[in-house]
Amino acid sequence: MWLILLLIIAVWVIFSVKDIRLKWISKPTFNYFKCALPELSETEKEAMKAGDTWWDASLFSGKPDWNMWLKSGKPRLSDEEQAFVSNELAELMAMLDESEITARGDLSEETWQFLREKGFFSMIIPKSFGGKEFSAQANSVIVSTIATRSLSAAVTVMVPNSLGPAELLLHFGTQLQQQHWLPKLASGEVLPCFALTSLHAGSDAGGITDHATVCRQEYEGKDVLGLKVTWSKRYITLAPVADVLGLAFKVYDPDNLLSEQVERGITCALIPTSHDGVNQGERHDPMGLAFMNGTTSGKDVFIPLDWVIGGESGVGKGWRMLVSCLSAGRGISLPALSAGTAQLCAKSTSAYTQLRYQFKQPIGQFEGVQSASARIFGLTYSIEAARENTALAVDLKKKPSVITAIAKYHLTEQARVVINDAMDIHGGKAIQKGPLNYLANHYAGMPISITVEGANILTRNLMIFGQGASRCHPFILQEMEAAQMDDPEQGLKVFDKLLVEHIAHSGKNAVKALLNGLTVGRFVRSPVSGDVARYYQKLTWYSQVLSSLSDIAMLKLGGKLKYREMQSARLGDMLSHLYLASCVLKKYEDDGHQCGDLPLLHVAMSYHLSSYSNAMKSFVDNFLPRGFRSIVRRVFFPFGTRSREVSDEQVKALCASVYENHTTRMRISTLCPSQNMPGLEKLESALNLSKKVTSAYHDFLRWQKKQSIKLYAKSLPEQLSEACEAGVISEGDKQLLGEWLQLSDEALSVDVSSAS
């Protein structure tokens, strides 16, 4: 007892007496920290400075403020935005037929003109320049809705409203550049594209070899300071039809015409595609989809310095421009495509499984089909929750680089699971292409979302926790800045103060995680009551564990953690599923905590909590020495994580809710209209009628089975007539059954084509 007391006093003295603390704790740690810090490239430094944090920082801190989260705002559209959705968007949807678009290899001229005239390319442009000035939420809803019908059209609308000329001009363009280009972009007179990717630079944008030399040259009769640019880009969406090319390249100034610095860095410029030397190359064929995607190149093309975004002061600022605007692509566009794909799958699968009979019963009654269906429904609910709240962050003027990376990676991966399950359930109907097939093109297009805006493997392994560890942690970024101060003594003073706060913060989180482990989080405060409260308790507990494990990882590896990609990815998965689960809980509250949504919430939460648990176990098993693994588990989870995979009961309850409750089904398909989409419209018509004939049809099937020997050679109308004469079904039932069976046959049919 005395030994423990003396130890406590010694620790207190060391940390309380500044001179002792500086000598024995802070200075050695400071020196270790400086050595452990990795040497950051310029692109990494820019990425660290770009963007900000939001709810991710609260989760990472181990102290999530649930009241703040639930009061951060409800996703909603303005009256003007809703009117656009109800009118212009509805009119566009009636014009789209993905089968025809794919066969043609392009949108129709009528559709292109409609998109230009109605402002679909100007959603992010302010009204003062002739744009719509829609919210990120409206942008996301519009792209999601279009994506349920046509990925080709959705991508075409998405790109001008994502990372590209308009976005860059709004944030970094000069006043003259904005006045010249934005009205033309808003009216559709000019169609933009943005070219970043080249042969040897994809996810590593800093590795681009496209270059420009600062020089003077005669242009339009005047001696002009400018750039001679050489580039060769690929995978550029809208490049084959663009009127203005946004271009990223590296600038060199060997003659010191701008400054004494020769290597000026990545720069972005706007170049009319009609300009001499600009080549709009051949089209690519992205998985058979019809959106315009291709190459662009140029060699020693002279452009005035005024064409650089931001003018002369914008030279070398291109990478900062790009990373600060990535929230549009990662946080809005790709989650919107994922939501559209998922909602199409949820709507079609929930109908198909009730109409497709095998062994005299709907396939939706088979537990194997229910398991895959529940995964579709639960993940679709989760995807929509994350889509809404990530767009909300952008509307709140946040640029949360970590959250948008989470949304990009996990929503596209979840949509891939959803489309795969939908394809499995639909079987042969899903693999015969044609107007009646509503899944095939989405299945083909899924790898595109996985690949663009930073390949998913890179996003998961390098970006989510790689940026999250420094940006979201309450102290790490400040400690890094202190360690890099030019004045070591001043740096040590700042570091000492931060270190004391850091140790106190980590100690509190570790103690809380231990106590919550012993009580399995039962005494954590929740902002709500009832069954849902338990989820808030677990997420708070799990947040504390993530904070503690992150500190352990960073203490052990320091800057080397970024090279331990598999470990970084697992910690990133833990943070990701905390965020995604938070979005599910917030959506449930935002939607008025409807009882019918509880089965959706339970399946989605079980998925995220079990995924967090699996990531945590994998991290501990692979990161810590064998002897420490059991210690960490016993400290943080002495009775286990108390999370399990989606249960059979949850699967059955969710499927029953979707099949029997129209509101629940609409909740996961609200952005997916079925009108004017032949395959889906037939499914919906047959499903609506099925509610009236289910009982009579089951009576007919039982009678049909008993009379099989007499009936096998007779047509279905003849069988229905005999059943009516036998008193098995009424005359009214016979008429309805005949109509329903014909509708069902049409809905379940596939397209055929004549042999060539």
From TrEMBL:
Record domain Acyl-CoA oxidase/dehydrogenase middle: where: 193-293
Domain Acyl-CoA dehydrogenase C-terminal bacterial-type, first and last residues per copy: 471-751
UniProt keyword list: FAD, Flavoprotein, Oxidoreductase
Gene Ontology molecular function: flavin adenine dinucleotide binding; long-chain fatty acyl-CoA dehydrogenase activity; medium-chain fatty acyl-CoA dehydrogenase activity
Entries under InterPro entries matching the protein: Acyl-CoA_dehydrogenase, Acyl-CoA_Oxase/DH_mid-dom, Acyl-CoA_Oxase/DH_mid-dom_sf, AcylCo_DH-like_C, AcylCo_DH/oxidase_C, AcylCoA_DH/ox_N, AcylCoA_DH/ox_N_sf, AcylCoA_DH/oxidase_NM_dom_sf
EC number assigned by the record: 1.3.8.7, 1.3.8.8
Cofactors demanded by this protein: FAD
Catalytic activity reported: a long-chain 2,3-saturated fatty acyl-CoA + oxidized [electron-transfer flavoprotein] + H(+) = a long-chain (2E)-enoyl-CoA + reduced [electron-transfer flavoprotein]; a medium-chain 2,3-saturated fatty acyl-CoA + oxidized [electron-transfer flavoprotein] + H(+) = a medium-chain (2E)-enoyl-CoA + reduced [electron-transfer flavoprotein]
Domain Acyl-CoA dehydrogenase/oxidase C-terminal: residue ranges: 316-461
Entry-linked Pfam families: ACDH_C, Acyl-CoA_dh_1, Acyl-CoA_dh_M, Acyl-CoA_dh_N
Similarity-based family: Belongs to the acyl-CoA dehydrogenase family.
UniProt-listed PANTHER family: ACYL-COENZYME A DEHYDROGENASE (PTHR48083:SF33), MEDIUM-CHAIN SPECIFIC ACYL-COA DEHYDROGENASE, MITOCHONDRIAL-RELATED (PTHR48083)
Annotated protein name in UniProt: Acyl-coenzyme A dehydrogenase
